[in-house]
Amino acid sequence: LAKIDPLGIRWQESMPLDLAEELEELAESETRPVRLRIVGGGGEHEFRSPALAANWIRACKEAADVQQASAQYPRYWTNRGDRQATFKDTILMPVESLPVFQQLFDDTYAMVSTRDRPCPAQPPCSKSRTQPGGCACSRPGGNPGLPVRYRVCQALRVEDSTHWGAYTRRRLDLQGQRYSDESTRWPCEPPGTNTVVEQAQDVVFAPLEPQSNEMYLFHGTNTRATLKIASEDFSLDLSRAGGGLGPGVYLSESVTKSDEYASDTVHSRGCTSFGETPDPYYAGIFAMLVMRVTMGKVRQTDRFFNDSEKKQMINAIASRQFDSVLADRRKATGTFREFCVFDTDQIYTEYVVFYERVYADPAACRPRSLSFSCSSGREESFQFQVPSYFVNFHRNPHTESFDEEHPLRPRGFDLLQHTLRNISGKTGLRLVQATRLEHSGFLSEYSALKLQIKQRGVSKPGTALRSVLSEEQLEAFAKAASQKAFSFENIDGDINEVYLWAGLAPVPPGPNRCARFAARPVRQNRIFFGNPGDALRQTPETPDGQKGLFLCRVICGEIVDRPG
């Protein structure tokens, strides 16, 4: 760091903690303002007294130590940066965590409709999104009215080292800029999400940084678009030039408000109406982004801006007078508070929550989509069209073709190694290489057959899994899988879907040396083993002494019991 001399002429450089001690001694006799500069960039910071400057230095050092000690990532993340420099991973949340998100939705629900809510009638009425409070069809007590609840079906956690790093750097930067500015303190009551967030700290949500006005907020958008955000190295851009506060990222503390912008249509843009074609797979399934947000210094208002005021606000953000805007429309009109930030590095999309709209009249709800599987004796479970660990997770395999091979992420590689040894009983087996085949054609054929068997049903669901794994093996696998964020919710036991092994014949060098080419005879022969050791015994070695296996998703459907 560097400190300007008393005459304001020369910068004097010092190590941060040495400078903090110097300022603390100076504070005993002086109260004059102090200017500091981060050497090599980072801008200047002015403090009203040496004591405030010393406190800021020590706070920054403490924050940096905490970040370094925790490898910068929340402790509940599956990836903590210890195996690879960068990562982007989508974690399917365990069923046990879904009540936390349901509580978050229930606690922030409000029986209020605004102009932005599309008409839920089919077809939509002519007054959709044209009048304050929304059309009569979308209001509480209307037909079908405002949803009375939002039922959580599934949730994903996005673990992205690049975006998390950009977010935490921006958060620390704002802490430094605003440390001595008392007007940075949050100006009103905290967001409605705080209670649930505090109750689930270090389990689902990381502790918040009050110095930077950090909080969790909602953003609703198109379901298929959220899959893209979760699966790709995709920079979120939610700018709304026509928004009431200027071109920024608009968020809410209420699930009801953010639901106004959620859609289940085939179009991957938000704010689409019910009159558009629903997604053939995700019809009736909506998505909510649960975002970690650093608000910084807030410009508070109770109304939207006109064009001139929007330009003034943009200039105020650029000159660092403010970092965000809070429009308290609840105070002015009885609707909602709206939060807006103008730098995407001030938000981190940590969760994508999938849910259904529940209406007072059950007949008004969309029919259950293809994404649900039902079984006798338990509640229907939600299934993604493409497995959540696929790179092509967001694509519709029936309309978007892909044919790719991807190396397994470290957590998947470790789990596969453990599974090989556990099921085969051969602790000396060593996994050398593992890739995943993502082929839209194979997946489309598989999904079509899956639907046929679902519609027909099977008399003994779960038989296949019990045939493959003993109770002891299943318990060992479940324990290892939970540590690697894998769940049997990925497979559909209602139609006896299960993972089975098949031997991989050595593939000669050439243009056809790929998993897709080798998979074709496996699909044609349809001979699989529950134990990888049995498959290995019937598989020839390569010249370097290795053997190859396929781990396949297999639908067993109706199983014939044959003694012996």
Explain what you see.
The chain is α+β, with helices and mostly antiparallel strands and 564 residues long. It is 29% helix and 20% strand. It is built from 15 helices and 19 strands. It has helices at 16-27, 50-69, 98-107, 161-178, 194-199, 223-231, 255-259, 307-318, 329-333, 410-424, 440-456, 463-468, 471-483, 515-525, 532-537; strands at 2-4, 11-13, 34-37, 44-47, 88-92, 149-160, 214-221, 249-252, 286-294, 298-301, 324-328, 337-341, 347-358, 372-375, 378-382, 403-407, 435-439, 497-504, 548-555. A 5-stranded antiparallel β-sheet has the order 5-6-13-9-7, with helices on both faces. Strand 10, helix 8 (307-318) and strand 11 (324-328) form a beta-alpha-beta unit. The model is unreliable at 268-275 and 374-378 (pLDDT under 50).
Briefly say what this structure is.
This protein is α+β, with helices and mostly antiparallel strands and 564 residues long. It contains 15 helices and 19 strands. It has a five-stranded antiparallel sheet with strand order 5-6-13-9-7, sandwiched between helices. The chain has a four-stranded antiparallel sheet with strand order 2-1-3-4.
